[in-house]
Design a protein that fits this description.
41% of the residues lie in helices and 13% in strands. By secondary structure, it is an alpha/beta fold. The chain has one domain: TIM Barrel (Alpha-Beta Barrel), CATH 3.20.20.150. 32% of the residues are buried.
């Protein structure tokens, strides 16, 4: 039986000098090569490597197009996408595109909310992310793994436990409603 675990790995982040000092292709190629090396190492241990799309201008993977390109260039079956639902919503990536373009290529899911304009990582229900549509699309990709909640700090740091409890309860209700729990 194959051990199923994903190692979440945001890419090194952004093009270090905003594509102005080091040629962007050189940075891209170096990150692809490094990810391939880590992916090969993970594969030997029967692990998946999950790459997260970040909704920032100079992130290496900041669109569905760059996600597909990155996964294709790494070229390893165990290097897949993390679907951070609020990031996809911020980038206005339609759920049906997720279902079609990432079929069989999802290793992990993040559940957090946002207002559709600003990065937020709030408990589900505090923003306007259409979770039902995205969860249905994720189900269509064939993904059957775990989802995690990703949160920023609460407005009042003394309310951390309540913030986490709220997020957990809201996420659980959404997963049950989408029949993916």
């Amino acid at each position: 039986m194959r051990q199923r675990s994903a190692s979440h790995s945001p890419l090194p982040g952004e093009y270090m000098f905003q594509k102005k000092l080091i040629p962007a292709k050189g940075e891209w190629d170096a990150v692809v090569d490094a990810t391939r090396q880590v992916g090969e190492h993970a594969g030997k241990r029967q692990r998946e490597l999950a790459i997260e799309l970040l909704p920032f201008e100079f992130a290496f993977v900041n669109s569905l197009d760059t996600m597909e390109r990155f996964l294709d260039e790494v070229g390893l079956a165990n290097v897949k996408a993390t679907i951070d639902i609020s990031h996809f919503w911020l980038m206005r990536i339609p759920p049906e595109q997720v279902a079609r373009r990432l079929k069989g290529r999802v290793a992990h899911v993040h559940m957090s909310d946002c207002d559709g304009i600003h990065h937020g990582d709030m408990p589900p229900g505090r923003g306007n992310t259409p979770f039902g549509d995205y969860l249905a699309a994720i189900r269509e990709t064939g993904f059957t793994g775990a989802a995690s909640i990703e949160l920023e700090f609460p407005p009042d740091p003394t309310g951390m436990a309540a913030w986490v409890t709220e997020a957990h309860g809201a996420a659980l209700k959404l997963l049950e409603k989408a029949q993916v729990h």
